[in-house]
Amino acid sequence: MKICCIGAGYVGGPTMAMIAHKSVDHTVTVVDLNKARIDAWNSESLPIFEPGLDTIVQASRGKNLFFSTDVEGSIRDADMIFISVNTPTKTYGSGSGRAADLRYIEKCARQIAEVSEGDTIVVEKSTLPVRTAESVKRILESNSKGRQFQILSNPEFLAEGTAVQDLEAPDRVLIGGSQCPEGLAAIQKLVDVYASWVPREKIITTNLWSSELSKLTANAFLAQRISSINAISALCEATGADVDEVAHAVGTDSRIGPKFLKSSVGFGGSCFQKDILNLVYLCEHFGLPDVATYWNSVIEMNDYQKHRFARRIVTTLFNTVSDKKIAVLGFAFKKDTNDTRESAAIYVCRDLIEELANIAVYDPKVTEAQMRRELSLATDDTQLTVCKDAYEATCDAHAVLLLTEWEEFKALDFERIYRDMHQPAFLFDGRNILDLNALREIGFEASGIGRG
Ligand code: NAD
Ligand code: UGA
After folding, report:
1. 157 lines ligand 2 (CB under 6 A)
2. CB of 449 sitting under 6 A from ligand 2
3. Measured in angstroms, how far is the CA atom of residue 217 from the centroid of ligand 2?
4. What pTM was computed for the model?
């Protein structure tokens, strides 16, 4: 088959690279309107950082994997088209701040209807509100000129930082489609693509609406676990219990399981908040306000945690951070990615900047321009300094905040850091990854979320 993917972002790029790598019989072209992004995909310096991605892109690029800005040409030739464009939270009009903004999806559907020539299978890869396929179908059919379109939902479950391993050995692949003979045939075609490397029993097929809703539900459940343990972290701080010990004790119950119970300064990333807001909006739309309130509390708890962390820093530093240098280690929303969307670091830095602190940040993969954009700070704004390493960021600082769990931070020479800081020196571990007792022995006043 000729496969086209519209959208060369964090999902489109890695997903299609894996399909091209594993299903060599297919030719895969990833297209995007953003020329700079496509140029980067065609260069030695890929636009996104993901461990292992370079290798699989290099193995297939120019053979059966192509990156191009020729959106129309690629749609015209394709037997199967994945839509992998962004679906951010709407920032205007009705549903603003909650509903998903589907304008990019609609634009793709109209373009496919206009340009494609054969009977094409259209695959929703983006995360979408339940029943979006109905709208996509109507747009396609109103311009079909006798052609047949089948719409499938194939949401993506990869996590950033582990995208390649998640794609290579997924827990499951989910494919939804209409249950008529043509729909089932289209489902089978996509099953065959994945079956090149994914065991058949891990490929789940459902109707369209179940597939669309399962994606939102999966993200809501994952985020809910983090908000639940973060809520308990506040109680731990008040009572002297250690949240890591509580999480371990709770997670060893096989019905609960140990994953996604790491308390933190709050979940970030482009999707958890957006997808839960979307779920909340849908519940309200379908007349289920109590269900909406339940899920909304997951977001409220996350906001509470981010602000609570910032407040705690100010209180601990004798109620003022004005003119104090505060070192921030890590700006990405998690380790092994250069993505900063909705990173907890943004919220913590903003709160501290409002308190007139001077922030010195070091992150191994995030550029200064990106940090300034996220914090809405001009290039000459001196409240932010971006440092070349952790030692420069922490030198002369009053406090160190650890906001991303990069492996390299665990290996830092904290004795040296302590020596070069203002005394008393405070360390706040927002990811609960450091040995706080060892840091206290060095002299730090150390605390982690829910660990005292
Ligand atoms: P992204 O912003 O990184 O990439 C989207 C790309 O689509 C952009 O490069 C944009 O230029 C392009 N685009 C938009 N409209 C276009 C059009 N009409 N024609 C051509 N290109 C167009 O977004 P992402 O992080 O890859 O997310 C994409 C979707 O996948 C979202 O719905 C998201 O919720 C979902 N998702 C993301 C992740 C993740 O880890 N980032 C994981 C699972 C699912
Ligand atoms: C998440 C899901 O894990 C993916 O399955 C999903 O495909 C994706 O969203 C999506 O739809 O975009 P991602 O956001 O890339 O993936 O990364 P996660 O590993 O889920 O981490 C999200 C945030 O939660 C990070 O800020 C992380 O630090 C935080 N987190 C995670 C915790 O605070 N505690 C934990 O125990 C786990």
Report:
1. yes
2. no
3. 14
4. 0.96
339 lines ligand 2 (CB under 6 A): no
- The whole-number pLDDT of residue 452 equals 80
Alpha-carbon dihedral angle through residues 259, 263, 265, 268, given to the nearest 10 degrees: 20
Measured between alpha carbons, how far is 139 from 113 in angstroms, rounded to an integer?
7
* Pocket lining: 155 vs ligand 2, CB cutoff 6 Å: no
Query: How far is the CA of 83 from the CAs of 20, 54, 152, 232, 249, in angstroms?
Result: 16, 23, 10, 39, 42
Going by alpha carbons, the residue nearest to atom 12 of ligand 1 is 7
pLDDT value for 143 = 79
- Which residue in 92, 90, 159 sits closest to 129, CA to CA? 90
pLDDT in tens, 277-297: 999 999 999 999 999 999 999
Instruction: Please give the pLDDT value at position 66.
Output: 98
| Tens-digit pLDDT profile for residues 9-66 | 999 999 999 999 999 999 999 999 999 999 999 999 999 999 999 999 999 999 999 9
Catalytic residue among 4, 5, 108, 271: 271
| Nearest ligand to residue 132 Cα | 1
Give the pLDDT confidence of 405-446 residue by residue, as tens digits: 999 999 999 999 999 999 999 999 999 999 999 999 999 999
What is the average pLDDT value for the chain, to the nearest integer?
Answer: 97
Residue whose token pair is 């292992």 = 52
Give dist(CA 375, CA 354) in Å, integer. 11
Task: Name the one residue in this structure whose structure tokens are 């059966």.
Answer: 64
Question: Which residue in the block uniquely carries the two structure tokens 């994953």?
Answer: 259
